[in-house]
Amino acid sequence: MADEANKTAFVEIQGRMIETTAKLKQVQNQMRNKESEKKRAYLTLEELRQLSDDTNTYKSIGRTFVLEPKHFLMDEQEKKLKDSETAIASLQTSKEYLEKQLADVEANLRELLQQDPGLAHQIMSMAAVR
Q: For 86-94, what is the mean pLDDT?
């Protein structure tokens, strides 16, 4: 009976571990995307700063380019930069939380396997068969 309960607990912990790992990877991908968005906005802003104020600047809208004042484009890039920084900070908090959750799940799994060495042997034998 205890053996069956341990197997059930193992399956539950394994599911939580898979779910947490998937969420963590998703957050890491989102962070990478926001980092590249931030870098693009920063580089664009640096290029705009080098231009004189009377230079014609254009904004891309789909396949069309629309004449826009330089200050408007700079404001837009600064907003993108700040939004990306805010999103990255939020995602970093989520990442830290998920990493802590993953560590807790791993500790629970280790504890379960130490409590029931027979379960560890069964799992290892199942892995060897595959």
A: 97
